[in-house]
Amino acid sequence: xxxxxxxxxxLTSTLDQxxxxxxxxxxxVTILNCEAGTLFLxxxxxxxxxxxxxxxxxxxxxxxxxxxPGIGVVGRAxxxxxxxxENEAQDSNSRFIETDKQTGFVxxxxxxxxxxxxxRVLGVIEVINxxxxxxxxxxxxxxxxxFAGQAAVAIENARLIALTDQELAARVEELQVMGRIVRxxxxxxxxxxxxxxxxxxxxxxxxxxxxxxxxxEEDRIRLMAQDGYEDIFTDPSDGHLxxxxxxxxxxxxxxxxxxxxxxxxxxxGILPTAHTQTIIPIRREADVIGLLLLESMSDSQExxxxxxxxxxxxxxxxxxxxxxDLVQQANNAKSEFVSxxxxxxxxxxxxxxxxxxxxxxxxxxxxxxxxxxFLQTIRSNVERMSVxxxxxxxxxxxxxxxxxxxxxxxxxxxxxxxxxxxxxRQMDDKKQTVDxxxxxxxxxxxxxxxxxxxxxxxxxxNAHKYTPEGGKIVVGAEATTxxxxxxxxxxxxxxxxxxxxxxxxxEDQVKIFQKFxxxxxxxxxxxxxxxxxxxITKSLVEMQGGRIWFESEYRQGTTFHFTIPVAEG
Length: 569
Ligand code: ADP
What we know:
Beta-Lactamase, 6-stranded antiparallel β-sheet, alpha+beta
């Protein structure tokens, strides 16, 4: 009994099925001091007894073979649920006779004991021939029965562990799949794409031949994505489903996933040949906002729990994409409105500018010094206004992603000239000097000349605004390999605008490219501005494949740098 306990303790700690079965049989054969043994497990589906482990000279090729229910000593042990002793094996109609002939092993006596848990028989342990040559007796039978009970528990435990292991593996796999889906969904802010991805995955993970995603409208369902219904919804833009299909109606009302056997229910699917229809409502909080519908020609079960989780994730992605759509629409509307206003303001501003120039030039009669000064103020304010209007216009377009650039090879010295010309008068007014440090034979850049001009003008004009009277500004350009952006163009033209002005404090440096940022620095506040210029400038540089950065020392000066890719060839 002590040996038995020791062995069972060992058995119950083995959770791998294969080694456990070997262990059980080895021990059974050893305890009863036998020559051979076999362990059978019952195949749950067919009731066959399967040879799982053999010990002793019994032919190894028995492994994996099956005995139909009820056959032989072991079959009897299963049927009667009682141990069976057969001490005259050779005389009986034993199935071993053939095997014995092949192996030369003679089965004299057999003891077969069922392994059972409650009323379920898992298999049979059979031991053959006591080594002392004596027949099996009741004691042997009792020992093996006690042992078989423990063995059954150990086998059942190992089975359960394997099951939970499989379930866990399936769950982990599902989570991995879900992770991929969610990543794909999050990467897309387009509603249509989010729906297509969801449907694609739902079809891939199910047995469905056809599927669709529809969004609930007042009295119908608008088809958003479909697969396998090409013949039915011939015009995808006009695909609608009525809400009165009984299966759809009840799924929407209950808000719960459902799987209906159409044949049994006497219903027709959308696919006329469908056997099974699965409907997963797509919910946004308590409301059903749409549905995922799958149809299959077979009667197989779908993994409703998985599909349900998929639809929950899809609902979030769809909702986000819808929100993004709304924001995008609002942005576009704003951009359109600002463009319209900017356009309408341009004409009056041009007119004011033109007449001011005429008056200032004395074309309509002499003017005194005070009048000249006033005209100068009008002119510079109109200029400010036109910069402001066009900055607002650019900003709206950048936000709505509708700013179009016209790329071509651009001559850098030419754009530099233009930018300096347009700011020359302001420079002269403040007695500031501008030096050019431009390398000879600069290659063309691949850019939009107007937008590069705008970048330069903005930087030069900032240098002018934030540098006191008499200050010094240097503008430079050189061609060089790109050391600032490993993923960008290999060759770039690097341009810079350096001033010896008021500089930018450390606190302000991190905010300088933010939209509408204006420094609290009283010296900076002396110059007018909106805080839009550098934000737009940065976008323009980056849209042309370049980088922008600066270095600055408070009250010493600032240098802005940017790069633009060289035009190839
Ligand atoms: P704005 O000039 O209209 O205020 P910007 O976006 O062009 O807007 O510049 C943002 C802020 O950056 C400015 O308000 C100023 O404080 C600071 N800044 C820009 N350029 C310089 C410069 N060259 N020197 C010192 N400060 C600067």
